[in-house]
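Hi Y.,

Following your request, here is the sequence exactly as I used it, all 942 residues.
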Amino acid sequence: MGAFAVAGSVFAQDAGDAQANPDSAKKLETITVTGSRIRSVDVETAQPVITLSQADIQKTGLTNVGDILQNLTITGQPTFSKAAVLTSNTEEGGQYVNLYNLGENRTLVLVNGKRWMTSLNGYTDVSTIPATLIDRIEILKDGASSIYGSDAVAGVVNIILKDRVNGASVSGSVGQNQGGDGRQQAYSFTVGSTTDKSSLVFAATYNKTDPVWAKSRDFTRYTYGDFDQSAGYSGTGPWGRFTYNGDKYVLNHTGDPNHIGTGADSRDINNYHVGVEDNDYFNATNQMMEQLPTELKSIFTEGSYNLTDKVTFKATGMYAERNSSTQVAGYPLTSTSQPDFPVYVSGQSYYNPVPGTDLSFARRITELPRVTSESAKSLHFDAGFEGNFDFLDHPWNWDAGFAYNKYDVDISGTGNINLLNLKQALGPSFLNSQGVVQCGTAANPIALSQCVPFNILGGPSASTRDALNYIMAREQSTAQSITKDFTANITGGLFELPGGTFSFAAGIEHRDNSGYDTPDELASAGYTTDLAAGPTTGSYTTNEAYIELNAPLLKDLPGAKSLALDVASRYSHYSNFGSTTNNKYSFTWSPFDDLLVRGTFAKGFRAPTLGDLFGGGSQTFDQYTDPCDAQYGSLSNATVAANCKAAGLSPNFRQTDTAGNPVKGQNQQSTTPFVTGAGNAYLQPEHSTTRTLGLVYSPHYVDGLDMTLDYYDIKITNEIQAIDANYVLDQCYQYSVQEFCSAFQRDANGQVVNLHRGNANLGWIETTGYNLGVNYRLPAFSFGKFVFNMNVNYLDDWKQASTNDAPTINYAGQYGYQHWRANLGLDWTQGNWGATWGIRYFGSYLDQCWDATTHCNMPNYTSVNWGYGTGANRMGAVVFNDAQVRYQLPWKGQVAVGMRNMFDKHPPNSINAYVLGYNSSGSVDPTMDLGRYFYVQYNQQF
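Below is the corresponding structure, written out as tokens. Let me know if you'd prefer a different format.
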């Protein structure tokens, strides 16, 4: 079937190296392709597989595996991207693969065919795998639970590292944005030796990415970009505010939302104005990163030794340490930041403008931006034996081994407030005989070494470094997950059929998973302004067995140049929920030489993770839009209006911000903490059904042309959901789902409080679409050789229902779920020269309207599948152009220079980019370029 092989490309064409290396089609070495355990000389299988080679990776100019995989047209919005500066969990700083928008923990990541390490929540951080060590990446575009077990629902990413090197090589890459930020560096050293008896490879790598600040670009310096700059301003600004006799007093100052300024004397009540004015708000993005910095150091070694002609010992070891940090704005502190531990300005405080009266206050502590630093240490080791023998006149292969993965995360944080110390600092204080303000009273003073008074109402210009150091919390938390994996596999031929050898593969696996997450003790107790979280600890074991059969039924017959069936089944027993069996059926049929038809039907599953089962839960300040809000809610929907009225809210009800004023835009932060992520020990696994049908066409009359077209349909039931606040409210008010209406309350003013959102088996997801791939190696010209490639994904549907009885919402065509996404490329080589031109296309989509008249070019749009009321704003397609030129030097070196986003295209501001979260600071798509990027690469072989 070498005629059907499609060369891997920088834009992710289907698998097969026969076109890239014509001699490879003539070799009869057996190989194992991701998605099957049966070794074969055939590079085309029933499963659609994408292959990226090391050369393809270098042509992108990217140095991070997460960025490389994000280029795939089937990759959806990342939950935790490099822009996820608001992430407050152990996934912070990592990069993860989200195939088909089905969630990163529904994509199984393998390295050299073995499971890689995951966090407690089932996320595999691919940024810990250095790109320079990769030989190739294979991406299976359909489910494979029957072969690999849990998590292989959306697909499988198999990262295959270099295992045979003779000599040494060094490489380096440096690049940065045109604006001078986001600098990326990547350096590697590899050395190895290969003989007939053994091989040994050692490599060391270093990668570093500098931050990008939100304030550095006009389209990122405001939460909602050019929609409405003030809408994203925080109602809690840097200047002290207190409530007295029902009025809000705000300190007079010279600043505005984008400039701090200077405050008046806070001890004099005449220096305050009543009511929160526009200049009292604060643009928090001024202190926030748009993209976070990371640093990766790794060492890797792999060796093999032929004990006999038939038996080989192999071992791999890798250690990687990723350090990252994020900065967000100083905390918007209020007296009830932690409702169970309120803090007030004492009536006996020296700085109290109303002596004798305890005051409720609000003030953002801009002097202490919140900085979180994370160190993630990954340790992998595997060792085992593999061999071959002949049985029943057929070759057989076997392997048995052990793999160990350990993922340690240490998180430290500064900038949150120690409420125990704050209570002391805002307590009684006096001016001592040395003219220094001191805690306590003149009759009962507290030593300056034990307490420092804080003038919280005076704002930044009144703060002292000693006071800030005293009230600031210094937090530390740790997390760990460990996986121990024992495997044994065997594959070989049994007998001959008309179409070839009937082959099988079988294997067993035992896996132990354990882990813990220990949050900072003071924060966990609710004595800091950080999100209070409970500890997580748990473990489970898995025993599995599988079998796969491949039957080539027909060959070289009219209408059937070939016909083969493949059946696989895997039995899995989990110590926490029981057993599951998942089957897969697939076929390949070639009616004539030029055409291959392939298809699969597969059952799959995803077991609940340690975090799903045993998570301690955490406070969160969700961004949400109250459906009952008269301006930004969904009252145009009759069901919503009726449900809001039944809840006792007036038609003029307004959601309020932290200043108590009506919100100025959608998706504003909650003014009290909600609770999320509590584990559920009774969770059952998700189940999936995958259907694919595809064509591979290589017309003999156009030499060098290969085309693929694949249809996919993936449905997940019994979905494990960690739902957000908007989802809870929408399901209650738009769809009248009572279990969500019971998940929150409203206070005396009608504001949403005490909203709980956790994990549950609820509802289903289904996505359908088409993948088109074209690869055309043109005839050689006197001026060079050209290869054209194209990969297109059309998303037909992406449907979801919160419960089996709830209405279905179809997100296809909305932000993050564009119908069309495409990559096109043209590669040229001539002698020592080479060049690549690439186009990345992100299709148009529907966004929310800002309001009925602003940023709303489809004001009358309505649909049963549209989850945001009446009206939509159609956003146009975005196109990025990339180029690279490279030259092979006479001394075994290669230099390349390139640009990504050549025409400096800016991503559009999208309301849903912020509404849907993704933990970024603003309203631009975190997967799109922030501007033109230049880079240079150098590789040297020795």
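The radius of gyration is 30 Å.

Thanks again,
Q.
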